[in-house]
Specification:
Strand content: 25-35%
Radius of gyration: 18 Å
Structural class: alpha+beta
Number of domains: 1
Protein name: PPM-type phosphatase domain-containing protein
CATH architecture: 4-Layer Sandwich
Strand order of the largest sheet: 2-1-4-5-14-13-10-11
CATH superfamily: PPM-type phosphatase domain
Shape: globular
CATH class: Alpha Beta
Distance between the termini: 14 Å
Largest sheet: 8 strands, antiparallel
Pfam family, one: PP2C_2
CATH topology: Phosphatase 2c, domain 1
InterPro entries: PP2C, PPM-type-like_dom_sf, PPM-type_phosphatase-like_dom
GO molecular function: protein serine/threonine phosphatase activity
Number of strands: 14
């Protein structure tokens, strides 16, 4: 398995490095630079891009990623800006990488069921969450290591996805409309859980909370702009026992695409433009699609709230 790294600077100079192992992004990233990673796994190919906000005063990004091509596994992390988010995203991605490497010989994506993959992924993430929660004990809010995460792994002819926070996963099937798979963990959803007692978890593999998705999305569509960026659930939040991510699954076919991204992408690129860029009818090459999405986001930086950006565009082989 090979990962190609390109770092595109202001003068379009390209630095390419061949990497033969799982990859996590460095916390440091220069102003005006977009990092680009191209990964080829057994059943997927992916383009991972990351960019630092032009308003950030230090050479670091609050967003991070994890690439494990031999397992067809990808994840993006968005550290919380009101906390020590850049370090939280770095720790979460690095510790998940370590845990995966320790057990990866036991993970057989081609031969596993979605139920088996779900069990392994949740165990690994529960361990990472517990570690972050322990590290956050006694810390002030601005010192805590807190981050969102959305992750995908191809298992046989299915894609299993795990999500916590407001980073998102989108699914572009062949000949169908773009679908936002994940449901944000925002205050509107938290309010429904408190008032109506709906399940705090959506788990499509286990069959839990699926009936509540439409009601949650309806409430979120009426969300006040004052509640934007108010995330109700994060990695590292609460105690070791406070770990309730969502799990989703989709059947997959060759040529279908998934987009994992932080809100630095979704706040600056509309769903309509995402669909236009992801569609195989308008862009045959998955790398061109990814680059168009990040370029759309870059163009709006001067008009909207500036934020770090990370995304992984994954195409089924």
């Amino acid at each position: 398995m090979v990962i190609k790294q390109e770092i595109l600077g202001k003068n379009d100079q390209t630095h390419e490095v061949m990497v033969h192992e799982p990859k996590v992004g460095f916390k440091e990233i220069a102003l005006g630079v977009t990092e680009k990673f191209v990964a080829y796994g057994a059943g997927t190919k992916a383009n991972i891009l990351r960019r630092r906000s032009p308003e950030t005063q230090v050479d670091e990004s609050g967003d991070n990623f994890l690439i494990v091509p031999e397992l067809d596994l990808y994840a993006v992390f968005d550290g919380v800006s009101q906390a020590n988010g850049a370090e939280g995203a770095r720790i979460a991605s690095t510790e998940l990488k370590k845990r995966i490497e320790a057990v990866k010989t036991k993970i057989k994506p081609k031969d596993m069921s979605a139920e088996q993959a779900r069990k392994i992924l949740l165990a690994l993430l529960r361990s990472v969450n517990g570690m972050l929660s322990d590290m956050n004990k006694g810390k002030k809010q601005n010192e805590k290591f807190l981050t969102t995460m959305t992750l995908s792994m191809r298992v046989g002819n299915e894609m299993i996805m795990v999500n916590i926070g407001d980073s998102r996963t989108y699914y572009q099937g062949l000949g169908v409309l773009l679908e936002q798979v994940t449901v944000d963990h925002d205050l509107m959803r938290h309010d429904l859980e408190e008032r109506k007692g709906i399940s705090p978890v959506v788990d499509e593999v286990a069959g839990v909370g699926v009936k509540n998705i439409e009601e949650i999305r309806m409430a979120q569509s009426r969300r006040s702009p004052l509640l934007d960026n108010r995330v109700a659930r994060l990695l590292g939040q609460g105690s070791r026992l406070d770990f309730a991510p969502d799990v989703y699954v989709r059947k997959v076919k060759k040529g279908e695409r998934f987009l994992l991204c932080s809100d630095g992408i979704t706040k600056e690129v509309t769903d309509e433009n995402l669909a236009d860029s992801l569609s195989s009818f308008t862009h045959k090459d998955f790398k061109a699609s990814a680059e168009e999405i990040i370029n759309r986001a870059i163009k709006t930086e001067q008009y909207y709230e500036h934020d770090d950006k990370v995304m992984a565009l994954i195409e089924i082989k």
